[in-house]
């Protein structure tokens, strides 16, 4: 169980960092962001999170705000998995949680 929680936590953490990196490059690169190699890499990494945000959010949410929706969904999932991991470690009396 702890291995599953660690993998899920890592996936959400990578997603959060990729979304934050894409947001930072969105601001820093300006209009030339579409030709930026790292911005394109972040777009590929964030496709699953953006698809989830598109699925969950109502149609009224603008496309430019879907990144924020994806970031907050991923952050909530990361916190939920972290709390589940803490709960598991406490219930297992910290065996294998170091």
Can you tell me the number of structural domains? 1
Element-level helix/strand string: HHHH
Which assembly state applies to the chains in this document?
single chain
Calculate the terminal CA-CA distance, rounded to whole Å.
14 Å
**Shape summary:** elongated
Rounded mean pLDDT score: 92
Helical residue percent?
A: over 70%
- Report strand %: under 5%
| Sheet with the most strands, sense and barrel status | none
Q: For the CA atoms, what is the radius of gyration?
A: 16 Å
Which structural class matches the secondary elements?
mainly alpha
Q: Which regions contain 5 or more consecutive residues with pLDDT less than 50?
A: none
Count of distinct strands: 0
What's the helix count?
A: 4
Describe, in plain words, how this protein is organized in 3D:
The protein has 98 residues and is mostly helical. It has one domain. It is built from 4 helices and no strands. α1 (2-29) runs antiparallel to α2 (37-45), α1 packs antiparallel against α4 and α3 (47-56) crosses α4 (66-91). The longest helix has 28 residues, at 2-29.
Distinctive features:
mainly alpha, 0% strand, 98 residues
Could you give a short description of this structure?
By secondary structure, the protein is mostly helical.
Question: How do the helices and strands line up, and which of them pair or pack?
Answer:
Elements lengths: L1 H28 L7 H9 L1 H10 L9 H26 L7
Helix pairs in contact: 1-2, 1-4, 3-4
């Amino acid at each position: 169980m702890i291995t599953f929680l660690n993998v899920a936590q890592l996936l959400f953490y990578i997603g959060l960092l990729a979304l934050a990196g894409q947001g930072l490059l969105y601001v820093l690169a300006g209009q030339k962001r579409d030709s930026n190699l790292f911005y394109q890499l972040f777009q590929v990494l964030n496709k699953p999170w953006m698809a989830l945000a598109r699925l969950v959010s109502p149609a009224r949410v603008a496309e430019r705000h879907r990144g924020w929706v994806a970031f907050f969904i991923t952050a909530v999932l990361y916190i939920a998995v972290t709390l589940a991991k803490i709960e598991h470690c406490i219930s297992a009396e910290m065996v294998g949680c170091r």
